[in-house]
Amino acid sequence: MSSLPLLGAPDKKKPKLTVYTIEECQSCHLKTKRGFREGDFVHKREGQCQSCKGNLMITMIYAEPIKVS
Amino acid sequence: MALLIIYGQRIQAWMILNDVSRSVGKLKLMKDRSRKEAVEFVTGGSNAKVDELAPRIDQFLEYFTIMPIDMDPSGVVGKLEHIMTTRDDRLKAEIRTLVPDADPIRASVIENLIEAASALNFIYKIVRHFYLIGKKTTSMFILAQLQMIMPMVLLEADALTGAIDAFKKAQPLGDGIGPMVVGRLMLDSEKKEVAKETVYSQSELKGRKVYLLTAKGPAGNVGQPGNGIKNMVEELDIKPNAIIMIDAALKLEGEKTGEIAEGIGAAIGGIGVDRFKIEEVATKHGIPLYAIVIKQSIVDAISVMRKEVAEAGDKTREVMERIVEEKTKEGDKIIIVGVGNTLGVAQ
After folding, report:
1. Residue B214 · residue B342 · CB < 8 Å
2. pLDDT for the residue B10
3. Where are the domains of chain B?
4. How far is B336 from B324, CA to CA, in rounded Å?
5. Cβ separation of B218 and A19 shorter than 8 Å?
6. Superfamily name with CATH number, domain B174-338
7. Which residue in B179, B159, B120 sits closest to B343, CA to CA?
8. CB A62 within 8 A of CB B304
9. What is the value of ipTM here, to two decimals?
10. pLDDT averaged over chain B?
11. Choosing among A26, A41, A44, A56, which should be mutated to test the B contact, i.e. which has the most B CBs within 10 A?
């Protein structure tokens, strides 16, 4: 019955979001996920890959809901 | 029962008035919060600066733009562009006076924060106006109309409030997906400014010569893609065989966030100046316009980019490459445009 709009209670709870930064090695394509830090931006090149010493680049910054365990 | 028959409409009016009053209160809180955040960001929390700069920021929030008269519509787009450019230039110049030492990213963040706070201030004032008119005239019909549109108004106000956090931290917005896809292709090539805050670079894709165009990031700009394409075609004499535009688009309720759709036409929002220019250039030179959109809600479009949208980037690139292969042949020239706000997205 949830598809009946008049009977359903409006969803007022907004999920809490955390912002993550995804870094990708340009050589071995290893991806690492960490919390967003101020100064991060997409396509920023920073540091070296820990496994192959290739160049790291931020490929994505996104928000996702905090998972409640 | 008799009481309900006699006072039914009054009770209903009272309930509507209460409901609208609560919503006006919520809008006031959002407006005040956005102003406070803008003041705090500009002054960096220094009390001495608050006294000096807060009145100036309050003035910005009251800025208005008078749209050109459209009784004689010929040439109205040019007038509209002139007015909007003057408005943008004025705001940018005022921000430079306010914070002369701000780098381009910080200046663009301040501009975006002031735009959001100004929009919230405007929404609040309009809603309050009709609420007070309804109350003054005890017109249930004015209040009922207000109550009917209130969920949509609150949704938009909520989206603007949500955007403030993203602006302050210079995080990429959902609207930045177009520049993110195109910006990736521009990484190792030389960028040249082709219009105000708009850059292009040249590259090769599947044996075609591609010209990549987007606003200049990672500051929060939307650039002028209309002027950019016009200048590339008419001044730089690049005669493309196709223009592909990638943009975020508002999804309908029930559609999935991050869904990709293909279409024909100029995929660009705003007040219409850029779309007009792109359509005009494309029509004049017979260039087909292809559009790829990544769907998201209004809240997602102006808040921090959602995971579903960010992950749609690779798939968007695949769709774009397929269009390039299907609609053009080797040796052709193609302009690929990433439309959107480049906050937190470099190229």
Report:
1. yes
2. 80
3. 2-169, 174-338
4. 10
5. no
6. Peptidyl-tRNA hydrolase (3.40.50.1470)
7. B179
8. yes
9. 0.87
10. 93
11. A41
